[in-house]
Amino acid sequence: MSKIFVTKSYLPPQEEYIEYLNGIWERHHLTNQGPLVTELEAKLKSYLGLEQLHFCSNGTVVLQLALRALGIDGEVITTPFSYCATSHVIVWEKATPVFADILPDTLCIDPDAIEAAITPRTQAILATHVYGIPCDVDRIEAIARKHGLHVIYDAAHTFGVKLNGRSLLSFGDVATCSFHATKVFHTVEGGMITTPNAELAAQIKLYRSFGHTNDDYYDIGINAKNSEFHAAMGLCNLPKVGEIIADRKFVTELYDAHLNWDKIRQPVIPASVERNYAYYPVFFDSEETLLRVREALNAEEIYPRRYFFPSLNTLSFLRVNKACPVSEDMALRVLSLPLYPDLPEADVLRIASIINRNL
Ligand SMILES: *Cc1c(COP(=O)(O)O)cnc(C)c1O
């Protein structure tokens, strides 16, 4: 039996990608806002219902662009329950992360904890819609407005997610997404950044390519562009997203039906959310149970991941000293189970039964 990892990257039919490669070979335009990048940006805008959107090289540099474009160099209130990139970018950009604990149901940042963490040096809130579950966007917006703060959403998990019929990427002053190979929609490596603010969008676009356009130099910048080869993968994958999400839903519902819910928990997802089934996290009663279950799965060459562990406030090199008891507790007990479109039904049932036997 072959190994089962937490995810398996989707690949489109090879001939569809080769078709795009033939065009690249004809044009010799490999990068720098080529026709495929332009086409992908237009199609993404229409798919996601966004006015402004920039395709970039990954889902981390877009967070850096967001912090830079908003002029953030002070305190940023952020979530300890996310992928490490969310906090690393704050430190990388020489700003200061201030962790606010999460809500136990949605695993997203707790608005009360945000309010409690505000100081005169606070400039922004950087929150993650973890597993594609929306943060409390209304309360976060109200807090931000009241205190004059910027809101950045790390929406890396949210491709295709809607809240009350509206793309989750449309919330916040700036939202970013990752198109990494492991995400629901991918361009091998890639990411995007969006903002409803046209001026900010122009600044971000400038930062994306060294701060200049042709021979006109305006500002410093970085190289956050992406290539025609990556855009081609995106153009192949975008029409398949509906199918990919439907297949992920099928696997999700199998787990839902076969896991023993007496002893494990999953996040609570509000009915107003149209999901993308990006992850399948389960919370055990203790870390001890988690380790036992993981060992039993590993023995059958099944490799779930501890997403998200450790709680980011406990990373010593970030030099923060703030307890986030909910996040620390949940991080110890969470395992993300294998979930991808063609994961065979028999394997899902086998995984569920190994878990149930080891609770
Ligand atoms: C994947 C991910 C990132 C990083 O994206 P890359 O494209 O790999 O740079 C950032 N934040 C979160 C929450 C992620 O899951």
TrEMBL record:
CDD domains: AHBA_syn (cd00616)
GO MF annotations in UniProt: pyridoxal phosphate binding; transaminase activity
Active site residues of this protein: K183
GO biological process, one term: polysaccharide biosynthetic process
Keyword annotations from UniProtKB, A to Z: Pyridoxal phosphate
One Pfam family linked to the record: DegT_DnrJ_EryC1
Keyword Signal in record: no
Modified residues (N6-(pyridoxal phosphate)lysine): K183
Signal sequence coordinates: none
Family indicated by similarity: Belongs to the DegT/DnrJ/EryC1 family.
Record protein name field: dTDP-4-amino-4,6-dideoxygalactose transaminase
